[in-house]
Structures are given as C-alpha cells and as structure tokens.
Amino acid sequence: MKADRKGSVTVFASVFFVSLLILLLAFIQASRDRAAVSGGKALGSLWTDAVLAEYDINLFERYGIFGFYGMQNDVEARLNHYAEYSFGKKKYISTDGFTADLSGYALTDTSVFRKQVNKAGTKAIAESFIGPYVGGKPGDESDADENHNAVLRNGKVADYLPSSGNDRAVTASAIASLLRGKTSASDFVKAGAEGYLQNRYINAYFKNGNDSKGLGSTFFENEMEYIICANLSDSGNLNGVRNRIIGIREALNMIYLNSDPEKNAAVTAAAAAIAPGPAAILVKQGIFAAWAFAESINDYRLLMADRKVPLMKDDASWATDLESILNNTEEGMIDPGSTRGDTYEDYLNVMIFAMDEEVRLLRMMDLIQINMRFLYYDDFLLKTYNAGLRCNVEINGKRLEFTGEY
Fold first, then answer.
1. Cβ–Cβ < 8 Å for 203, 128
2. Confidence (pLDDT) at 329
C-alpha cells in the first residue's frame, strides 16, 4: 500500500514538474516572441526612417525637395539587409522578409509633389525676410551667357518629362478677364492660397528672363517662362510670354480707352474725319484696337526694361499718343515715368497663378528633372524618387506594418 502511495506521488510529481516545465518554456517562448515583436516594432520604424534618411542631397539643397531613390525591389532589399543585420544571428527570431509599397509616394504624383512644394514655399516666405535664396551649381552671374538660348533637342529626354502629353494652357484673353477690377498683381495672386505658396516657391527656385536670382547654372534661363509656355527653347518661351503679356495688356488697355472720355472723344473725332457717316463706327473700333495694341507693345518694352506697368491704366501711366498711331510713327520705348504698377515678374506670377494647378506642378517637375540631369546625374528621372513608403514584415508570426514620409 505504501509502495503504491509512493508511486502515485512520484507520478504526480513528475506530471507536475513536466507541466511546470512546459508552462515555463511556453512563458519563455511567449516572452521571447513578445520581446522579438517589441524589438521589431522599434527597429522597423528605425529601418523605415533609415530609408527616408537616404534622401538625395542635391535635390534637397537645390530645390528644397525631399526624395529617396529606389524602386520597390531596391527598397525591400535595403529593409531586408537591415533586418538581417539586426536579427540574422538570433535563432529565436524568425522573419518572412519585408515587402514594400511605394504607390502614392512617387514625386511625380502631383499630390505628393504639391505637399513638398508647399512646405518649401512656406520656407521661401520665411527666407525672404532674412535674405534671398542662393542655390544651384557654384557660379556667379558674371559667368552667365547673355546670348544663352538653350534648346532641348534630345527627343528621349523630352519624352520622359513629367508633363509630356499635357499641354493645357490658359489664354491671354481669359487672364485679362480674370484681372478686370483688380488694381495690382497682388490682388490676384492671393496670399494664403496653395497657388500663392507655389508661386513663392517658383520665385525662389526658378529664374526668369529679367532676373537670374543668383541661382547659378541652369539649362534654361527663362524658367518661369517655361512653366507658362512649356516650349523646348529659351527663345520660344520668351516669345510665348511676350505674346501673352501683349495680349493681356491689349485687352486691359482697350477697357481703359473705352472708359476715358477724353481719349474716346479724340478717337471719335479722328474716325469721323477719316470716314464720315456710319463707317465711322467701324473705323473708331479699328483705331481703338491699333492704339491699345501699340500701347501694349510699349508696355512690354517697359516691363523688360525693369519699369512698372499697372494692370489698369490712368492718364499718368498711359504712354502713346493718338497722333503717332494715326501716322504710324515708331518712337521706340516711351517711358511715362509712372512708378505705380507691376513688374515683369509680377505679370509672370499672374499668368502662373491663373494656370491649372496640375499643369503648373508638372512643368515645375520638368524643370527640376532637366536641371538635375544637366547639373548632377545624366540619367535622373523624378519618377524614380519617392517621398515616403509603406512596408510590412512578419516577425515570429505577427504581421507588423510601418509607414513613413517626409
């Protein structure tokens, strides 16, 4: 009987200690899994940040844009390298490898690029109070070629531009209509709007035909003009803007001529002298059109000479006279001496602000891609750069997800 009792105690003790050992091992394994997952969470975020930390320094320093290079396979290889380095020799940690998703983070996605530009535009506003932005490849304005007329002749480069196939544009007459009732460009380019931040970015990071802004070497000199016209030559962009400014000014000058009693009376009298009777009405409109056009050409000359031209004229800012229009005499640039009005860059800002936002952003991407190829990398493509990533990995049976963006 005693032997049976001793045997029972032994069996019970064995079962108890085996059970206890199993529980202990399970606890140890659970603790290991918990520690592995906890470590994976911390390290996974660190590895994601490590990928973001590999942003292109030239892209950031020149254009204030954060972006890291890589396709999905490249990013997964980097993350798996980090995981192998941290977990490879730890037998109690098992992973199934990282998978990465870059969709929605490419810099050529206008929503992604917009965020980057708006942030850099806000920074540009702050910098405007402490001094101008200076970036780009080393070089000063004395190195600039005054006769610079770059032409992008490489068809493959042109075909891979982010805006390729998108040629939507706003007409001069449409812009003139939008400007009616406005007294200055600042009334139109409204502070606080996203378009305003983008305009500030453009003014900080891109040249124009009247101001190279100390930005060093670039492929095009007329960069703001490119955003408006998207011509593949400097001269084409400059001429395109010239025609638009003259078109805008012609429409606004016509409004002024029709509203000014003195000039209206003078044109009416001249028309009656040329063609008495009903035909005088048509002649009057022809004289008005010729006068508005001549004033518009003079306006453009003033703008290119760093003078100001107000959106809506008055007698003090009106330059041409009716006699020279009727006699078709060329006087060159006439400066009325008015200090009121807007500059050439202000007119560029108005045209850029009036553009479809997507087109504006895509053409900004064009310039960045062209100049990054011109200054730094022959094979640079903006679509291969990303502003964030999503990734996931399974650690000891638990699926973990990570996201990161600039």
1. no
2. 77
